[in-house]
Design brief:
- This protein is α/β, with parallel strands linked by helices and 407 residues long.
- It folds into 3 domains: 189 residues, Spore Coat Polysaccharide Biosynthesis Protein SpsA, Chain A (Alpha-Beta Complex); 56 residues; 104 residues, Rossmann fold (3-Layer(aba) Sandwich), CATH 3.40.50.
- The chain is 36% helix and 21% strand.
- Strand 10, helix 11 and strand 11 form a beta-alpha-beta unit.
Length: 407
């Protein structure tokens, strides 16, 4: 077995449906297996997905045991020489896995690798490549200074903003959304630390891989879409507590002496600052945004379908069955992208994957539309849903027959 892929699902059945369609295309020609651990989803994920993907091994849990523990649960069943930890809210190109495996096999000291990631609006995700946190870099990130100076080697050292996103690099930290490791390395350093319920476990594993003498790589030779925001809203107080408590655990485990004390102080300060921002948002800004109607609202006749001829029929059917009246929408060919970018009449563009428009092309097109003011939606050929997400700060949207658009 060449490759084992592990995906942990929690209440994102339509995102996982699209993910598995893309994974199916990417494992063609590989001796691979796919394991999906369901952490007690309440959205009917198993009933919906199991009949659609008989080639996937599903492991249902009676309760939410956390991300790290669920991955380790599937790992005990894996037979692949390489293990890929993959998030359910991702889309991969057809040649993604082959390119990644070839790259890893060409690096004699490779311990783990991550990949270039885009969000659902086509923007590069800086967490694709990171440095280990330090007290100073943590302060710059947690107070927002890194966002003001995204390419600074000082203020944005945590996200390695000074390193080109378009070139391969040795880095410190890889994102758990796409983390590929040789099984032999995991056998030596251990898998995810189950004390991390959510967040921080990828930093900890990256640290142990590097500490054992291996190298972590950021791979720019392929890109994936990672929608983000599907499990915990990034602006919520719950996220603040989960994320920064994970940082505290990482520091307690791996740092010692005065450095750990300084780090703990900065983390506690950041929790207080971000917690205050979150409370202010919930009490003041969120009600205002609700009254003003923030965000794009999809309405009939404002959806453009980007598809090859004959590949839009199922998508149109889904839209019609969910009340979005796609019968009056227009279908464009991929080469019409500039026309679409200049057309302000559409509030959404729907990419329809099919025989003549594959995932690799769609991911590239998504990046071309990174400055588009409307929403970008995605539909896999043969799937029964449509998904989209504009920002890592909010949950995505999904539509399917007999179900209205949801967040």
């Amino acid at each position: 077995m060449e490759l084992s892929i592990i995906i942990v699902n929690y209440n994102v059945r339509f995102f996982l449906e699209q993910c598995l369609h893309s994974v199916y295309k990417a494992v063609q020609g590989l001796n691979a297996e796919v394991w999906v651990v369901d952490n007690a989803s309440t959205d009917g994920s198993l009933d919906y997905l199991q009949p659609l993907f008989p080639w996937v091994h599903f492991l249902p849990n009676p309760e939410n045991i956390g991300y790290a523990r669920a991955n380790n649960q599937a790992l005990t069943h894996c037979r692949g020489r390489y293990i890929l930890f993959l998030n359910p809210d991702t889309l991969v190109a057809e040649d993604c896995f082959r390119l990644c495996l070839d790259f890893m096999q060409a690096q004699p000291m490779a311990g783990a690798m991550g990949i270039r990631m885009l969000d659902g609006s086509g923007k590069f995700l800086p967490e694709s490549k990171r440095a280990f946190p330090s007290p100073v870099s943590a302060l710059y990130k947690l107070t927002g200074l890194s966002g003001f100076f995204p390419r600074s080697a000082v203020f944005n050292h945590y996200s390695l903003g000074h390193l080109s996103q378009d070139q391969n690099h040795q880095v410190d930290v890889l994102a758990g959304a796409f983390m590929l490791l040789p099984k032999s390395v995991l056998d030596q350093v251990g898998s995810f630390d189950e004390r991390f319920f959510m967040y921080g476990e990828d930093i900890d594993l990256s640290y142990r891989v590097q500490k054992a003498g291996f190298q972590n790589y950021y791979f720019a030779g392929s890109s994936i879409i990672h929608f983000k925001g599907e499990s915990t809203r990034k602006g919520s107080l719950n996220y603040v507590l989960l994320f920064y408590n994970a940082m505290r655990l990482f520091v307690q485990k791996n740092y010692s002496g005065g450095r750990a004390g300084i780090f703990a102080f900065f983390i506690q300060l950041a929790i207080l600052i971000r917690g205050a921002f979150s409370i202010i948002y919930r009490l003041l800004l969120a009600p205002i945004n609700s009254i003003m109607g923030s965000g794009h609202k999809i309405s009939p006749n404002q959806i453009a379908l980007l598809a090859a001829e004959g590949q839009d029929q199922k998508a149109v059917e889904i839209l019609n069955n969910t009340g979005l009246a796609a019968s009056n929408s227009l279908t464009y060919l991929p080469e019409d992208k500039q026309v679409l970018k200049n057309n302000v009449d559409y509030q959404a563009i729907l990419f329809c994957e099919g025989a003549s428009l594959n995932w690799k092309q769609i991911i590239a097109l998504t990046e071309d539309f990174a400055d588009y003011q409307g929403e970008l939606w995605f539909h896999a050929s043969g799937s029964g849903s449509i998904i989209g997400s504009d920002s890592k700060e909010t949950s995505g949207r999904a539509v399917a027959p007999n179900q209205q658009a949801t967040t």
